[in-house]
Specification:
- The complex is a heterodimer of chains A (about 250) and B (about 500).
- Chain A contains 8 helices and 10 strands.
- With about 250 residues, chain A is of the alpha/beta class.
- In chain A, strand 2 (about 55-60) and strand 3 form a beta hairpin.
- The longest helix of chain A is centred in the C-terminal third of the chain and has 13 residues, at about 180-190.
- With about 500 residues, chain B is of the alpha+beta class.
- In chain B, strands 1, 3, 4, 5 and 6 form a 5-stranded mixed sheet that branches. A 4-stranded antiparallel sheet of chain B has the order 2-14-15-16.
- The chains are: A alpha/beta (about 250), B alpha+beta (about 500).
- One iron/sulfur cluster binds near residues 141, 205 and 236 of chain A.
Chain lengths: ~250, ~500
């Protein structure tokens, strides 16, 4: 017992001050929101879209990067002879609308909307219980969702908790591209959650299939099965990106 | 027999040879070579099928690990038609490989004792080993399960969706009261078609498949993938890149091991260690992010070297963070060993005898905890591990405690390794671009991931594209070990036993 107390003293208090204080420091090599410089991009060369593993770049009248498909590998920025594409340290990427994940050249980046509608906010704003379903995720999105429960992040201080039964849940947090073999499991879990309910898609896989997009074995993300209320881009998203999304969804920051 | 032995091709880890150098054995000679090798202590790292030039013919390849010689042996044979006599009865460790071959290529291992699908998908050849009607949906986990009959026997089914944030799998227990007679595990829910999609590569996606084969094992799998590419393109890595890869690999091991020890403490309700370790795991992930910007090492390892260099400031910061994490981890984890009530829940639970671990061909900490001295870093060293020696951490109880304790030993060795390496990083470049792949060759690459041996094999076609790419995650070897360890245990100890193995679902399901 004494050991436990001594260890407790040695470990100290480690829950971060965010969001009432500054966000935890991100590594200098962190790759957040992409940015496209319209002055530099010679639209039409397609070198960026040719190398993109996520099929995230469309080159038409201008270059557009779909953060929902992006793996944040930076192959595009390496391939660009003009250095038109760069990755900023902006970690706030989550959005309510799928369209808001599309990055276009030069546009001043306003934070995409994430807030729930008033009715749902009234119900879930102070207490949100989620059932997590991994549907062929690689366990990185799962792990960095799970980490929010540890003492550093302490998700439960916001009234957000992961629960064991869908019957106790207000919504489902989905990771993975939704394999054909998990489709039924996801559908049944979703059905078991009482109405009204919300869906959060975490990671490139859950948004659009990620590295496995267009494989016959997957359903290209949660969107094709259920209606998604919040998209959190990344492969995997940083825990701070997920937390920021959840807090903005609940209008807590 | 000796004659056949001479016809085995012998390689070192990370080498490639011409496909033609591997003599074709007759099917029965192939089986004799594999079974005899296992009898004398070798292990089957991989057994897989690949197309042959002739229609209707399938090749089988076996990769054997020879620990004594620190060498790998490859043998192959050809199967004409849709079946061959199963090897499983003679050599139990190939049981899952034979099921996988059947599922992918529609070839029946006649006489296989428990012939079921592995991942529940259609075959790649249009031929079905279970004679299921074409077009009929294949439902995961829907099949016969081993059953114990009797008035007081009951069956418990769990999953695919579990209570926590965890990947899906289905577990069937045959119980008598609280006592488990038998556990059968059905996986395949995470199947996303990675091996099939690698055929025809390498392309823009290939490395991302490698990085996400098991997302918590990014460094080990990606290093194995890159070493295959390097072997097939005769690309030399720089010493600096090798060292940085080794550091990243050990950071990955520590993050996961610390996380597992915390989760084990959580499963027995010992909250101090659980809380501390949950956070310290994050500290190790953040060290990986310091190297490459991503907590799981995405982008760190790439063909020809590494994607991110090290500088003095980073070395210093890493050393500081390492010191702090070591201090915290020591307090948190030693608390576990010093608490008798915690130890009582670890000892003698989920025992796996050494002989069973050997028979099943198990790898990694689960095997080492049962006294099997197997560690790729030591037995088949590659990269920086050719020049530094990390002791093999073993224990002899094969129980939950053994699996936990081996992790702690490994954490300590890894910290020491990284500290030494950080002081002696060779100078030079970090990347030599790998060119195109040589045609008609085979390359094998092993790595000691935190769960154990990661094995990648690639075979190129006439154009230097992947004709076949075979991945074996350590979990593929070890899931049956978990099932075995549950025998005669209380069903309530399942979460604890499961966590003590902490195997990958996506790495198994591919
Ligand atoms: S960073 Fe995103 S957009 Fe750029 S190549 Fe990679 S996946 Fe494509
Ligand atoms: S988005 Fe990336 S990290 Fe997340 S599950 Fe998919 S592959 Fe893994």
């Amino acid at each position: 017992m004494l050991n436990v107390i001594v260890s407790r003293l040695k470990q100290g208090h480690r829950t971060m001050v965010y969001p009432s204080g500054p966000a935890p420091e991100l590594p200098d090599r962190f790759r957040g929101r992409p940015s496209i410089d319209p002055e530099k991009c010679l639209t039409g060369c397609r070198l960026c879209s040719d190398v993109c593993p996520g099929k995230a770049i469309v080159v038409a009248d201008m270059v557009r990067i779909d953060m929902g498909r992006c793996l944040f590998c930076t192959e595009c920025s390496t391939a660009c002879p003009q250095q038109a594409i760069s990755f900023t340290n902006e970690y706030r990427l989550a959005a309510r609308n799928r369209q808001d994940l599309i990055v276009v050249p030069g546009k001043q980046e306003a934070l995409p909307a994430a807030r729930l509608d008033d009715r749902l906010l009234g119900m879930f704003g102070k207490s949100l219980k989620l059932r997590q379903v991994s549907a062929a995720g690689c366990n990185a999105c799962e792990a960095d969702t799970n980490v929010l429960g540890t003492i550093g992040w302490d998700l439960s201080r916001f009234g957000i908790q992961f629960v064991a039964s869908p019957r106790h849940a207000d919504g489902v947090l989905i990771t993975g591209p939704v394999s054909r073999n998990m489709r039924l499991g996801l559908e049944k879990t979703f059905l078991a959650v009482p109405e009204p309910k919300i869906v959060i898609a975490v990671g490139a896989c859950a948004i659009a299939g990620g590295p496995y997009a267009d494989h016959a074995e997957v359903e290209n993300g949660a969107d094709n099965i259920v209606r998604v209320n919040l998209y959190v881009p990344g492969c995997p998203p940083h825990p701070l990106t997920i937390l920021d999304g959840l807090l903005r969804l609940l209008n807590r920051i | 027999m000796n004659h056949e032995k001479l016809r085995m091709v012998t390689l070192v880890n990370g080498q490639s040879v011409e496909l033609d150098a591997i003599a074709l054995l007759a099917p029965d000679a192939f089986q004799t070579v594999v079974a005899d090798a296992v009898d004398v202590g070798q292990r089957v790292a991989s057994l897989f099928a690949a197309p042959a030039r002739q229609r209707g013919v399938t090749q089988l390849f076996a990769v054997l690990v020879n620990t004594q010689l620190s060498r790998l042996h490859i043998v192959r044979t050809e199967i004409h038609g849709g079946q061959y006599p199963s090897l499983t009865n003679r050599c139990p460790q190939v049981h899952l490989f034979e099921r996988e071959i059947a599922e992918q290529y529609g070839i029946k291992p006649v006489g296989h004792p428990w012939f079921k699908p592995v991942r529940y998908h259609e075959s790649w050849t249009g031929r079905d080993a279970w004679d299921r009607p074409a077009g009929e949906p294949i439902l995961p986990g829907v099949c016969d399960f081993y059953r114990v009959e009797g008035d007081e026997v009951h069956e418990v089914a769990v999953g695919p969706v579990h209570a926590g944030i965890i990947e899906p799998g289905h577990f069937r227990f045959q119980c008598h009261g609280e006592l488990v007679f038998h556990l059968e595990i059905a996986l395949g829910f995470q199947h996303r078609g990675v091996e099939g999609a690698l055929i025809g590569g390498p392309d823009a996606r290939s490395i991302h498949y490698a990085e996400t084969l098991a997302g918590d094992t990014t460094i080990a799998h990606t290093t194995a993938y890159c070493r295959v590419i390097e072997a097939l393109s005769k690309c030399r890595k720089t010493a600096r890149a090798q060292t940085l890869r080794g550091i990243a690999l050990e950071l990955e091991r520590m993050a996961n091991h610390v996380g597992d020890l915390g989760a084990l403490a959580g499963d027995i309700g010992f909250l101090p260690t659980m809380s501390y370790c949950g956070r310290i795991r994050g500290d190790f992930l953040n060290m990986t992010a310091l190297l490459c910007g991503n907590r799981f090492g995405r982008g760190m390892v790439c063909p020809g070297g590494v994607g991110f260099d090290m500088d003095d400031a980073r070395v210093e910061k890493l050393l500081r963070q390492l010191d702090a994490a070591e201090k915290d981890a020591t307090v948190a984890i030693e608390l576990l060993w010093d608490t008798p009530s915690a130890m009582a829940r670890f000892e003698n639970i989920g025992r796996l005898p050494k002989q069973v671990a050997l028979d099943l061909g198990m790898v990694g900490p689960a095997a080492r905890a049962a006294g099997v001295e197997v560690d790729t870093r030591n037995d088949q060293p590659s990269g920086v591990f050719r020049f530094t020696h990390i002791p093999v951490s073993t224990y002899d109880t094969g129980d939950v405690f053994g699996r936990a304790y081996v992790r702690w030993l490994e954490i300590q060795h890894s910290i020491q390794f990284i500290r030494e390496q950080l002081h002696t990083i060779p100078s030079g470049d970090i990347l030599n671009r790998a060119g195109s792949l040589l045609p008609n060759r085979i390359a094998v690459s092993l790595d000691e991931g935190w769960r154990g041996e990661v094995c990648h094999v690639a075979i190129t076609d006439d154009d230097g594209r992947f004709m076949r790419y075979k991945v074996v995650d350590p979990s593929f070897h070890n899931w049956p070990g978990l099932a075995y360890a549950l025998r005669n245990q209380q069903i309530s100890d399942f979460p604890l036993c499961n966590k003590s193995f902490n195997l990958s679902y996506c790495g198994h399901d591919l």
